[in-house]
Specification:
heterodimer, A: 264 residues, alpha/beta, 2 domains, six-stranded mixed sheet, 26% strand, B: 339 residues, mainly alpha, ABC transporter involved in vitamin B12 uptake, BtuC, 74% helix
């Protein structure tokens, strides 16, 4: 990625998040750039969703500041936020009878008037988003007829149609098989590198995250480590965080291996 | 909106007009189309035909159209708000709440002047307060649980609670008041006097108009509260608006027409089946017109002498509505996943 994409989108200083005053993760200083895929990793229950919720305004952080393009997010209106970042959530929408095109069109809402009517410019953004994500071929099908992988692509198309500089995804590859996991990650990578989108996603798929992310954020204990996959490998961050008994980290392949079970 | 749906809307408008006209000519006294036209286009006011149309049939047809459209819209709003296909004014206890309000008025205050007149503005206020009370309790429960099925159960429980209180009131009430209340409970579009009509028409039209202003956030709510919020929708504010509109529609219509069974619950499903979409910019007008058509149709059936005039309206709406709800449950692939 060239320097042209190194525009700062989201920046936090001294952020602490948690519930009921109990700090789950603290001292979060992170910077998200345009044109980069950043993967947030943690053990289950480690606070991935909590961090994402705080970043997207779904909950108030315990302390610290969040700025979007130089502007404190707590001063932004709901509409300004909707134009700054879009989200892909783990929940599957219940809109069974909505066809794919209508659903993707909902992404235009922050940009349309009171009645939500789409202009021809809106329509072309929607078509473009569907084409980029490869959902054009089932544009007229209803959501309930799609597979999990297809639904995920549709939800990414919807986020893309929202036309925000930043897209934040919570576990976009959960429940997908390897082929679709890699497909979704490559799609996100293309959106970052070709369209200059800033992409932040949480995942527990270490392997794909290592291979396809520009930067990693790793929640270790209650602190957040930030760096490139190469640095993570060099510093042994993943081993420190994820290796449990019966498992080891293979430095040559960058993959986790199971130890063979001990003989009785 | 696709051409298909414009055609659908045109067909529904046509059907509604035909049924409306039939309403004006059919009845104990058969009128001709020319007599109807004369009465509607400002012919002499004092002949019997004009009198029947203006003082009896026009108010009844308008009441049926307003109540049917209003209840259908009410049901659609509830189904979208709760993301539950079985939500509706009667299932969630709104009608029971309205009934309790009217029961308190008619049965517990027998000395009051208005007891003899079931359709009265006081009854409308009582029903509205009752419906809003139940709606408020349901929204409180929703905030705590956020689970559609649990919420429906709470609605049913509130409904039973209201029914229990009503039967206690009935036990202790005077015969005449009891009879008025039972007849009110059977549902009817024929009890609204022409001079009372504006009191039904204004709130219903305002409620329906307000629903059309909510098309955009309603569509966002199809994605779930979190997605809606991420699109810039003030979810809490939208919920409160939907609450107010449904309470207004269900409360006022129930006050004037009694608790009408199934129309609010079943009509949105008919509309979804017809336009094959959940997009409210299409679904809302189709639901509204389907409600008008179905209400006029049901009311027409009980007016045709061959079927025995005097059948309670609720018997017909239930006979038609129950199979629709059953069909939704059995063929519920589209919605089953969503609940």
């Amino acid at each position: 990625m060239g320097p042209i994409h190194m525009k700062v989108l989201l920046e936090t200083r001294g952020l602490a998040v948690g519930y009921h005053g109990k700090r789950l993760v603290e001292g979060i200083d992170l910077t998200l750039f345009a044109g980069q895929v950043v993967s947030l990793l943690a053990v289950n229950g480690g606070g991935k969703s909590t961090v994402l919720r705080a970043l997207t305004g779904g909950m108030v952080p315990i302390e610290g500041s969040i700025e979007m393009e130089g502007r404190p997010t707590k001063e932004m209106t709901a509409m300004q936020r909707a134009r700054a970042w879009s989200v892909v959530l783990t929940e599957r929408p219940s809109a069974g009878l909505l066809d794919v095109r209508t659903l993707v069109s909902l992404g235009r809402q922050p940009w349309t008037g009171h009645l939500g009517r789409l202009t021809s410019a809106d329509h072309s953004v929607v078509e473009n988003a569907m084409q980029r994500t490869g959902v054009l071929q089932f544009a007229t099908r209803s959501l309930s007829t799609l597979s999990d992988g297809e639904v995920q692509r549709v939800m990414i198309a919807r986020a893309l149609a929202q036309d925000t500089p930043l897209i934040i995804l919570d576990e976009p590859t959960a429940f997908l098989d390897l082929v679709h996991r890699v497909g979704v990650m490559r799609l996100l990578r293309n959106l970052a590198h070709e369209q200059g989108k800033g992409i932040l996603l949480s995942t527990h798929d270490l392997q794909t995250a290592m291979d396809l992310s520009d930067r990693l954020l790793v929640i270790h204990g209650n602190t957040l480590w930030s760096g490139t996959p190469v640095q993570a490998k060099a510093e042994g961050v993943l081993e420190r965080t994820f290796v449990v008994e019966g498992m080891r980290f293979d430095h040559t392949t960058g993959a986790f291996r199971m130890d063979p079970p001990a003989h009785e | 909106m696709a051409f298909r749906n414009v055609g659908l809307l045109a067909v529904l408008v046509f059907l509604a007009l035909i049924l409306f006209a039939l309403h004006l000519v059919i009845g104990p006294v058969q009128l001709s189309v020319s007599e109807m036209m004369a009465a509607l286009t400002g012919g002499p006011r004092n002949n019997p035909a004009a009198l029947i149309i203006h003082s009896v049939r026009l108010p009844e047809a308008l009441t049926a159209a307003l109540a049917g459209g209003g209840l259908a819209v009410c049901g659609l709003l509830m189904q979208t708000l709760f993301r539950n296909p079985l939500a509706g004014p009667s299932v969630l206890g709104l009608s029971s709440g309205a009934s309790l309000g009217v029961a308190l008025l008619m049965l517990a205050a027998p000395t009051a002047l208005f007891v003899e007149i079931p359709v009265d503005l006081t009854a409308a206020v009582a029903a509205f307060v009752g419906a809003m009370g139940v709606l408020f309790l349901i929204m409180l429960a929703d905030r705590r649980m956020g689970d559609g099925v649990a919420l429906l159960i709470v609605g049913l429980m509130l409904g039973y609670l209201c029914s229990a209180l009503i039967s206690l009131l009935q036990l202790a009430s005077a015969e005449q008041a009891l009879k008025s209340f039972v007849i009110w409970g059977m549902g009817s579009f024929s009890g609204v006097l022409i001079e009372r009509l504006p009191w039904l028409m204004a709130p219903v039209l305002i409620g329906i108009g307000a629903a059309f202003l909510l098309v955009k956030p309603l569509n966002a709510l199809l994605l779930g509260d979190n997605y809606a919020a991420s699109l810039g929708v003030h979810v809490g504010r939208t919920r409160r608006w939907i609450m107010l509109i449904t309470g207004l529609l269900a409360g006022v219509i129930t006050a004037f027409c009694g608790p009408i069974a199934f129309l609010g619950l079943a009509t949105p499903h008919v509309a979804r089946g017809l336009c094959r979409s959940s997009d409210h910019s299409t679904l809302l007008p189709v639901t509204l017109l389907c409600g008008v058509v179905l209400a006029l149709f049901c009311d027409l059936i009980i007016k045709i002498p061959a079927f025995g005039a005097g059948i309670p309206l609720n018997a017909i709406t239930s006979l038609l509505g129950a199979p629709v709800v059953a069909w939704v449950l059995f063929s519920g692939k589209r919605w089953a996943r969503s609940t």
